[in-house]
Specification:
The chain is of the alpha+beta class. The protein is built from six helices and 25 strands. Helix content is 21%, strand content 37%.
Length: 456
């Protein structure tokens, strides 16, 4: 018992002496600072940070403004060789964030363009009927719009005093030529023939056909009215002619459209122009014929945009042998095209548009993510986009949760810049610089002799 009491007394004495004389107490755990190696895990400490405020950074442990203990941030192997914006995330956090990955592929970039169009007339197949003389319509054969006509079909008979005079001149020249063609006087037969040719040419200039002139030559009788014929096969789309109507020279009496081919006017967005070229195939659907698809081609790309809609206009051409395509119909148009050559393609969901920069997060393995600035090209089908610079084929990229990664990356980059500023050596102190040390007493202005200088 006496031994036990003695041991207890010595222990109490030791504790009291440690309180009264702390220099004799056992040494506590050393305080670790930034740059020290933590003996628990063997990693070097970068800095101490507040758990709830990542911008509150210190070089040694302590308390945050919220009263929480600062936690150490450790250096990872290879950090000094990587950009400051590179971040590391453990697998559990990656799974909780729902990170998905994809690959940069090299393939043909295609795009399907669907737009609405309006069927219209082929302007190269529209014909107008007018006269080169004044007159009165005596009889009308084609009496309403929409009527189908054939080339050479009579349209109307017209009386014109000028045509009557031209016919009389021609018959007079013809009789004179018949009478003088056998003359032995030099030049008489030639003059009669030239006069006949001039009269015939005048009738031709007034759209007399050869058959009408030959009939006039056989009958030798002037016709009061002359028949005007259709110049083409088609449909009358405009009619201004009426029975007894007075016609002035140059006025259009009929417009005839050949509907064997039609045009379709469509508009596409500006960013879709790289996928369109003249001659490329096109398909079209009509609401009243949903089971049929008509095939055509891009005939022309207008060289300007619409000022109001900022869209580009295309002209398509379709064959119309059965007259199923009617002008002013609405149609749904499909254009399937591709960019020439192989292109690097990524999903659009992988792209972050951040002001002037366009970023894609690259997965480097072992939980490391690096933001990579890229330059994009045209947008393709299935929500894909062309990559011109910044990535290579086979790179693994992030498809989801990249906005969280971007926030963490920006924070890491900002912290690194703060540490660089804090650890930078102090600037040279110029407060002790005495201006009196700059002695200018020995400077003699006489030494600056400019007497020899002349003004040029």
């Amino acid at each position: 018992m006496r031994t036990l009491f003695l041991f207890i007394a010595l222990a109490v004495l030791f504790v009291e002496s440690a309180v009264v004389f702390p220099q004799y107490a056992l040494a506590a755990d050393p305080v670790l600072k930034a740059g020290d190696i933590d003996p628990k895990n063997g990693k070097r400490i970068k800095y101490w940070v507040a758990p709830m405020d990542p911008t509150y950074i210190r070089n040694e442990p302590g308390k945050s403004p919220m009263g929480m203990d600062l936690v150490p941030e450790y250096e990872e192997e290879g950090d000094e060789k990587e950009p400051s914006s590179t971040i590391r995330i453990d697998p559990v956090t990656m799974q909780n964030m729902g990170v998905r990955f994809g690959r940069v592929e090299k393939k043909e970039l295609t795009r399907k363009i669907r737009t609405l169009g309006t069927i219209t007339y082929d302007e190269s197949l529209i014909y107008t009927v007018n006269t080169k003389f004044n007159g009165w319509i005596e009889k009308l054969f084609v009496k309403f719009e929409g009527e189908s006509v054939k080339a050479g079909q009579p349209l109307f008979n017209i009386y014109s005093p000028e045509l009557v005079s031209a016919q009389e001149e021609y018959l007079l020249a013809l009789r004179q030529y018949k009478r003088l063609s056998a003359s032995n006087i030099p030049g008489v037969a030639d003059n009669a023939r030239r006069l006949l040719d001039a009269s015939r040419t005048r009738l031709q200039f007034w759209d007399f056909t050869n058959a009408q002139i030959n009939a006039l030559s056989r009958n030798m009788q002037v016709r009061k009215d002359v028949t005007v014929y259709s110049p083409a096969t088609g449909v009358v789309i405009k009619k201004d002619a009426f029975d007894g109507h007075y016609v002035k020279e140059g006025e259009h009496q009929y417009e005839i459209a050949d509907l064997s081919k039609v045009w379709v006017d469509v508009e596409i967005y500006e960013y879709e122009l790289p996928f369109v070229s003249e001659g490329m195939p096109a398909e079209m659907e009509l609401t009243y014929l949903p089971d049929q698809r008509f095939k055509g081609k891009v005939l022309f790309i207008y060289p300007f945009l619409s000022a109001k809609t900022r869209t580009a206009r295309l002209r398509l051409e379709f064959e119309n042998p059965n007259m199923l395509l009617k002008p002013n119909m609405y149609a749904t148009v499909y254009l399937n095209s591709e960019v020439k050559g192989q292109s690097l393609v990524i999903p659009q969901e992988a792209v972050i548009h951040s002001g002037e920069r366009t970023l894609v997060f690259l997965y480097r393995g072992k939980g490391k993510f690096e933001p990579r600035q890229v330059r994009l090209g045209v947008e393709g089908a299935k929500e894909t986009v062309q990559v011109l610079e910044g990535l290579k084929e086979g790179d693994q990229i992030v498809l989801s949760a990249q906005f969280l990664l971007d926030s963490e990356s920006r924070l890491r980059e900002a912290i690194q810049k703060m540490l660089e500023v804090r650890n930078a050596p102090p600037k040279a102190d110029t407060s002790d610089l005495n201006m009196d040390d700059l002695q200018m007493n020995d400077l003699n202005m006489d030494d600056l002799n400019m007497s020899d200088q002349k003004k040029q």
